[in-house]
Write a structure and sequence with these properties.
By secondary structure, the protein is mainly alpha-helical. The chain has 14 helices and no strands. Helix 2 packs antiparallel against helix 14, helix 5 crosses helix 11 and helix 8 packs antiparallel against helix 11.
Amino acid sequence: MTVLETPDVSESRVAESATGRPRRPRRLAADKIGLYGLLVVAAITALLPLLWMVSGSLQSLTELLSNDSFLPADPQWGNYITAWVQGDLGTYLRNSIVYTGSAVVGILLVSSLAGYALARLEFAGKAAFTFIILAVMIIPAPAMFLAQYKLLISLGLTNNPVGYVAILITSGIPMSTLIMRSFFVSQPRDLEEAAALDGAGPIRIFWSVILPLARPGLAAVAVIQGLGAWNEYLMALVIFDDNALMPIQRGLTAFTSAETPQQQVLLAATTISIVPVIIFYLMAQKHIVKGIGAGAIK
């Protein structure tokens, strides 16, 4: 009688039978190592100016100009107090938050409605309307300053926050509309058709079905247009005569005098000005990533 010998079971097979799942070798391919290396280099390149700005904001002017060390020898936290008080950053920061928040809300409302109409509705002149949006995006913003300013004069909105916010909204609508249109086009119609069969009207479908699905796209638009509105300064110089109505960028110019250079205080003021942007980005980061993957900015 022949006895069949059972082959030796390796440790990996034993571990596989114990866990019920096959063990996969944890080895990175060469292309992934290269990709991760490039991402690390890109991250360091992006963060280095921010780190230099924060470091410089904690140095004295002599230490900053001497460029002896990257890190401050004796952190000068008083630079932030000087920037806040002398630059009146509290007023400018409040103005920018109000302007940016109002502009983003208006842009999201109009662009989501217009993008949904271009993606789902059929109407006369649809192609011409899309072409006009593309044509407006080609025109540089400074080239429209004169026409916009004359329009605000005729409406009595010069030196008025309402007029400034209106300009920010109209400037951001074209690109945001195309972004939202491409996002809506990529979404299936099944849920809309099911809601229509249940008796929901167009407004109810848009508000209860479409907008929740469009949350990643809305977050992507909010970040793009929020950064644009936060950094806008030229139009504010054209519209406003009162410094109390200026955005945060006006506060930064208080420390750029050639007679009394205060670069360290300017860096501290710049650091303060980007804190709200970083907080907003961190809050919306998950939706931004989903929006990019779902086609919000394809």
